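Hey L., structure's done. Input below.
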Amino acid sequence: MSKTATIHARIDPATKEKSEAVLKSLGMTPTDAIRLFFRQIALRNEFPIELKNPNPTTRETFAKTDQGLELEEFDSLGDFKRNWDVE
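Output:
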C-alpha cells in the first residue's frame, strides 16, 4: 500500500507564478502549501477558509464594473477624498 497519493491540478500560469513567489517568500513550496491546506481540511472537517456569496448589491456592483459601467476615476487621492466627503 502506498504511503502517498498524488493530486494533479491545472491553474493559469499567471496565478501560479504569483502564488509561487508568495510561497517562496514564506519558505514554502507549492507542495508544502497543498499539504497544509489538505491537513487543515482534515483537521477541521470543513473548508478552512470562510467563503461567502456576495449580497445582491455587491453582485450588481460586480456585474456593472465587469462591464465598465458606473466607474469613477480620480486624478489624485485628494480628489477621491473630496468626492467621498460630498456624498
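The two ends are 66 Å apart (CA to CA). Helices lie at 13-25, 30-44, 56-66, 77-86.

-- N.
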